[in-house]
Amino acid sequence: MRTKHVVRASLIGAWIMGAAVIAWAPRARQAGAAVATPMPDTVRDSLLVSDSIYQGWKWWHVYCFRCHGEDAMHPILPTAPDLRWALSPTGANFPRDSFFNTAWNGRPAKGMPAWNVLLDSAAIKEVYLYVKARSDGWLKPGRPHRLSDLQQKNKSP
Ligand code: HEC
Questions:
Q1: 61 and 129 fall within a common domain
Q2: Is residue 39 a part of any domain in this protein?
Q3: Residues of 32-46 as b/e, b for ≥16 C-beta within 10 angstroms?
Q4: Which terminal residue of the chain, N or C, has fewer Cβ atoms less than 10 Å from its own Cβ?
Q5: Could you tell me if residue 34 is inside a domain?
Q6: How far apart (Å, rounded) are the C-alpha atoms in residues 42 and 28?
């Protein structure tokens, strides 16, 4: 009986939250429309990354994608895990050091190569940052942008 009440109370709470969001949404949209030109810095570029993550993306698409999948999703080798899931708190919640050690030493018996022969530790840390950004979800699939790339693009040849 008690738990039923708690469930009902939290359902009502969720409903009120939902109603508040719905009530708020049109006003927020109107406020946005009042601004004549959209402010570029209010729109998050979900592909804009640090140089380290950009390097990680590059390493990934040289060495890792052929088994773990392009953009760190949809593994190609059936036994290779989706590393977004491996790093996610709702997945395997792999700590950074375990990621690093697994990439560094591999698990040769299980088809995961050791990367210490081709990559240095800085590169593996960059790969980790890239996969973490993909796992956290804010970095969308595709080629990330660096600030320096965007500045380059705006320059006339
Ligand atoms: C030839 C295929 C292949 C390539 C290329 C490859 N992996 Fe793997 N990887 C695997 C397999 C298979 C496993 C699962 C091993 C097991 O079952 O324990 C794995 C597991 C892992 C794990 C452990 C995940 C977990 O949840 O246990 C990490 C971290 C990892 N790989 C990182 C990388 C990184 C970083 C690269 C690129 C530098 C890479 N892998 C390239 C095949 C590959």
A1: yes
A2: no
A3: eeeeeeeeeeeeeee
A4: C
A5: no
A6: 13
Q: Are 40 and 150 in contact (CB under 8 A)?
A: no
Residue 146, SS3 per DSSP: strand
Q: Could you say which DSSP state residue 36 is in? A: S
Is 96 a pocket residue for ligand 1 (Cβ < 6 Å)? no
**Average pLDDT value over all residues in the chain:** 82
If one counts the domains in the chain, the total is 2
| Inside any domain, residue 40 | no
Q: How far is the CA of 68 from the centre of ligand 1 (A)?
A: 7
Please report, for the domain that includes residue 98, its CATH number.
1.10.760.10
C-alpha 82 – ligand 1 centre gap (Å): 9
Q: Against a cut of 0.85, is the pTM above it?
A: no
Nearest CA to ligand 1 atom 37: 64
Domain coverage including residue 132: 48-146
Q: What is the dihedral of CA 30, 33, 35, 36, to 10 degrees?
A: -160
